[in-house]
Design brief:
This protein has about 270 residues and is an all-alpha fold. It is about 80% helix and about 0% strand. The longest helix has about 30 residues. The mean pLDDT is about 90.
């Protein structure tokens, strides 16, 4: 792979990590950027595999707390309930994603649909952010399995590129009575099994098609996604606690409109 394409992989990796945990759809951004940059990966595997870098960013930031959960599993009911809640939330999208894997991948080739999803998702997020909700759940470590299942069902909407995994889970959590901070934090935790599962499944499906040039691009994208993801995870919770999600809603709408204009002008 030439230097120009490696540079594109670096840009896409930075965008992946920078958008994975905010409700703007990292996949949608990668599809649009890849389209306009002329970047193509084998089976669109690059876009999935570099997510591992973003996963590791969450693990690093929450390492101490997650280790505490693991150590407490044999003795503390709250630790077991937290793990069960995350796994229960993970299952709906995991099952549906495996069943519809081929169909979902084909949607990666439809950037106009991504733009529409970005705009509609931004409108929904803006509407929900302005609702006068009365949250009753403020600790993402204490969500019940039933609440987690409902959030996990909402995450299924994100199988459509452009909807946003974090956006779907955050909107679902807010409507079910969580604080903005707790909604964003649970979205972080749910990202770990969801993205790791997508990574493993896509690697299993496409590893025979990868060549050395793909591996180098994925490596660069992976490191870039880790660095930018680390920055976002560290600042996001405090930001949304103070300001909510309106900025990200408008971001989605603007990117969607600009994307449609770009597609109309340049194809």
């Amino acid at each position: 792979m030439d230097i120009a394409n490696l540079g594109k992989a670096l840009i896409l990796g930075l965008v992946e990590g920078g958008t994975e945990f905010i409700p703007v759809s990292s996949t949608g951004h990668l599809i649009l950027l890849g389209h306009f940059l002329g970047f193509h990966s084998t089976g669109k595997t690059f876009e999935v595999l570099i997510q591992l870098g973003a996963i590791l960013a969450i693990v690093l930031v929450y390492f101490t707390r997650l280790l505490g959960v693991v150590l407490c599993l044999p003795t503390d009911a709250w630790a077991r309930r937290f793990v069960i809640s995350v796994l229960v939330a993970f299952l709906p999208a995991a099952v549906l994603g495996a069943v519809l894997h081929g169909t979902i991948k084909s949607l990666f080739e439809r950037p106009a649909l991504v733009c529409v999803a970005l705009i509609l998702g931004g409108i929904v997020l803006l509407f929900v952010d302005r609702l006068k909700l009365r949250p009753t759940e403020d600790n993402a470590f204490r969500f019940s399995p039933m609440l987690a299942l409902k959030i996990g069902l909402c995450q299924c909407a994100a199988l459509f590129p452009g909807v946003s995994r974090s956006g779907a889970t955050i909107v679902g959590a807010l409507l079910m009575g969580t604080t903005k901070r707790a909604a964003a934090e649970f979205s972080f935790f749910l990202a770990m099994p969801t993205m790791a599962g997508a990574f493993a499944y896509d690697l299993y499906k496409n590893y025979k098609l990868l060549d050395f040039s793909d591996v180098s691009a994925i490596g660069i994208g992976f490191v870039a996604a880790f660095v930018s993801g680390l920055f976002v995870v560290r600042f996001l919770l405090d930001y949304v606690s103070r300001h909510g999600f309106a900025l990200f809603a408008w971001w989605r709408i603007i990117v969607g409109v600009v994307g449609l204009a770009g597609l109309a002008m340049f194809g």
